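Quick one:
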Amino acid sequence: MSEIHGWMTSAAGAPLKLTTLDAGPLAADDVEVAVTYCGVCHSDLSMVRNEWHNARYPLLPGHEVIGTVSALGANAKGLRIGQAVGIGWTAESCMHCQRCLSGNQVLCDQAVPTIVGHHGGFADKVRAHWAWTIPLPEGIDQASAGPLLCGGMTVFKPLLEYRVLPTARVGVVGIGGLGHLAVKFAAAWGCEVTAFTSNPGKVDEAWGFGAHHVVASGDAKALHAVAGSLDLLIVTVNAAMDWNALLQTLDKRGRMHVVGVVPEPIPVPAFALIGGQRDVSGSPTGSPVDLAQMLAFAARHDVRPQVEHFPMAEVNAALAHLQAGKARYRIVLDA
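Output:
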C-alpha cells in the first residue's frame, strides 16, 4: 500500500487531523512529489469552511506545493527523480480538448483542482499530472516560493494575458497576500505602480514592495485625485468597494481586472465603460507554460512573497492566524 500522511478535515469548519490514506497505484501520467513546503492560501481556508459550496469531505487542503519528485508514472515526461518542482491550483486537465490543445489548460472543463476531489499538499506527498508538475528554475528561494504557485500566478496572469508594457501605469487594490505580490511583480515588470490600501499600517510596506504611489482606497478625495491615471487596475480584495470611483481611476481604454473573490456582484455603470472605452475582466491562475514563465521571472528578478513559517503539524494554528487577518503576507508550512 502506498500511503499518504496528510492533514484532513471531515466537515466544514472542523479542525484538520493527521490521517493516513491509501494513495493507490500511481497513474501512468502522474507524478508523486515529496512535499518540503506548502503555502497556505485563503482558498484553502475557504474550502475548509466550504464558503464556495464546492468542498468535498474529507478534505486535504494545500495547493501551493514545493517538493521533489519521488515517483514517476510510466507515461510521465520531462521530469526526473529528485527534481525540485511545484504544484499549484490545478493538478490535471484532459490534455485533448480545444482549450488544452490551444494552451489554455487552466480553462479545461475537465480540470481537477488540487484540493477539490483530490488530495492536496498539507501532507508528506502529493500527486499531479506531469504537465502540471512544474520544474523550479535555478536560483529560486524554495522556502518562500510556494505562494507563487497560486497567489503569484493569479496576479501575474493579467500582465501576461494583456501584454502589459513596462511603460504602463498599474494600480493594485488591496495590499494583502495577493496584492503585495501584484505590487512586486508590476514593479519588476517595469511599470509605474500605485498601491491602494484602506490600512494606514500598510502604507510603508507598500512603498517597500515597490509602489511608486500609495492611495487610501477608502478616501473619496484621494481616489478622485488619481482619476484617469491608470492603464490597468488589478483588484485583489474580496470585499465591496466604491466601484465607480475605482473605474474612474482608469485612463481611456483602461482595464479593471478582478482576481479577488468579491462576494457580492460588482455594479458596473455603463457610462464609465462606454465613454472611456474601458474594460472589466477577470482570470483564474495560469497554464503550465504561464506557471513556468512566472517562476522564471520571479527567479530572475528575485520576486519573493513575504512569508511566515509554521511547522505543518501546526496547520490549524496557521489557518486561525490567516482567518484572523494576521498573516504578513503569506503563510508557508514546513513539512
